[in-house]
Automatic annotation (TrEMBL):
Keywords: Glycosyltransferase, Pyridine nucleotide biosynthesis, Transferase
Stated name of the protein: Probable nicotinate-nucleotide pyrophosphorylase [carboxylating]
Catalytic function, reaction form: nicotinate beta-D-ribonucleotide + CO2 + diphosphate = quinolinate + 5-phospho-alpha-D-ribose 1-diphosphate + 2 H(+)
UniProt family annotation: Belongs to the NadC/ModD family.
Cross-referenced CDD domains: QPRTase
EC annotation from Swiss-Prot or TrEMBL: 2.4.2.19
Ranges of residues in domain Quinolinate phosphoribosyl transferase C-terminal: 116-281
Gene3D superfamilies xrefs: Aldolase class I, Quinolinate phosphoribosyl transferase, N-terminal domain
Chain's role: Involved in the catabolism of quinolinic acid (QA).
An annotated GO BP: quinolinate catabolic process
Entry coiled-coil feature ranges: none
Length: 283
């Protein structure tokens, strides 16, 4: 896969600190502090319990080093790479108290993000050979959007807009309140800058024809059948980006991609992907 830029620490650290503070409470890790000598050092392995794709190692490292900057991590499988069950993703070494105190926060984030990357990779693989890109949506865990969208990229997918200020996406309720598609598009053009792209959600070929006549940049083809999608792509004829959405699974994705759509957006990649089971084992 292409080079995967890491997330800036300044973006990740507040999220990691909030998670650690939630876990530490008012008294800290009373179990570890009572049992483990303050000068004890340890080496532990982040090991995969199942096959998958890794994402979130920098986030996990941030959890450990936020507790104690002396912790060091050696990476065996970088973000975006596949790991087999039993494989060592990374090794961490340093003060034992820090490793144990940060363990759950590090694993919560690493397992969650790797689960998203693994789910994304499965759908990307399913549409291989077609031009369609797999993209995520704004259906993310509050506070974790940047991390979850990063995990989608680690799995070989791409990102839809990051927030309400990225681009215009005119949906059915916007159209209902505006009165019709043409009015909604006209108001969007008048109310946004020249660099802002406009996408319109349509659920019928009749709506698609109106949107195309208005010259939109992209059309979201919502919950259309494979047959409708193929006809819609033909109607568009390259005049706008085509995005298919609704009821997409690794099983249905190949047929959807075969219609020629440019994008396939999937909400469950971020809101429902199961974790990748990863453990922290003493070496």
């Amino acid at each position: 896969m292409p080079h995967l830029p890491t997330l800036p620490r300044i973006l990740c650290e507040p999220l990691v600190r909030a998670a650690l503070l939630e876990d530490l409470g008012c008294a800290g890790d009373i179990t570890t502090d009572a049992i483990v000598p303050a000068d004890a050092v340890a080496t532990m392995a982040l090991a995969a319990r199942q096959d998958g794709v890794v994402a979130g190692l920098d986030i996990a490292a941030c959890a450990f080093t936020t507790i104690d900057p002396r912790v060091e991590m050696d990476i065996g499988h970088a973000d975006g790479s596949a790991v087999a069950a039993g494989g060592v993703i990374a090794t961490v070494r340093g003060p034992a108290r820090a490793l144990l105190t940060a363990e759950r926060t590090a694993l919560n984030l690493l397992c969650h993000l790797s689960g998203i990357a693994t789910a994304t990779a499965a759908v990307v693989q399913a549409v291989r050979g077609h031009k369609a890109r797999i993209v995520c949506t704004r259906k993310t865990t509050p506070g974790l959007r940047a991390l979850e969208k990063y995990a989608v990229r680690a799995g070989g997918g791409s990102n839809h807009r990051f927030g309400l200020d990225d681009a215009v996406l005119i949906k059915d309720n916007h159209i209902a309140i505006a009165g019709d598609i043409r009015t909604a598009i006209a108001r969007a053009r008048e109310g946004t800058g020249h660099m802002v792209r406009i996408e319109v959600e349509v659920d019928s070929l009749a709506q698609l024809e109106i949107a195309l006549a208005a010259g939109v940049d992209a059309v979201l083809l919502d919950n259309m059948s494979v047959e409708q999608l193929a006809e819609a792509v033909s109607m568009v004829g390259g005049r706008a980006l085509t995005e298919a959405s609704g009821r997409v699974t690794p099983q249905t994705a190949p047929a959807i991609a075969a219609t020629g759509v440019d994008l396939i957006s999937i909400g469950w990649l971020t809101h429902s992907a199961p974790i990748l089971d990863i453990g922290l084992d003493a070496v």
